[in-house]
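Bit of a strange request maybe. I'm writing a small parser for structure token strings and I need a real example to test against, not something I typed by hand. Could someone generate the tokens for this chain?
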Amino acid sequence: MTEASQTEAELLELAKHGDRRAFDQLLAPQLPRLRNLVRRMVGDPQDTADLVQDVLLRAYTRIGAFRGESSLSTWLYAIASRLCLNRLAGSERRLARHGEETLTRLPDGRPGPDQALERGEIEEALHRAIGELAEERRIVVILRDVEGLAYEEIAEALELPVGTVRSRLHRARLDLKEKLERFFP
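Reply from user aminoacidic:
Good idea to test on real output. This should exercise your parser:
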């Protein structure tokens, strides 16, 4: 059987038996979203690279424990979320969130100079507002509104009840609304 024709289940089985190539093939499609999640959580490019490596190492060493009760991406998000939250909890500084993509993209309809300036101000305010969210709220906003995970997947990844996920997301959105009120009267 060629590598291209192997299913995710077959790659997973090979990875569980120590096949590094299968592991790499299995995780390759997950890497862009994983990097984005980590980058949005920690902000710093060097911390992002370090944490992604930590996630991959932890996933590799624990792939044998993956039971398939959730999707592989949910399992990876769980690992990444815990590592990011641990890193942020251990940090004594708040991380700046400048230059990062926003949670939502504003319509891009060839704005005039005034509109471009206003859009830039809104995006900068959104960056700051997201960066100021408590870590446990920031992660649910990112997982739900950026990555598009279902409430149940987020709950599983963060090992929380679904109601807690909904509550944190609601509070996070209220926080963002309050911080961005001057832009949307």
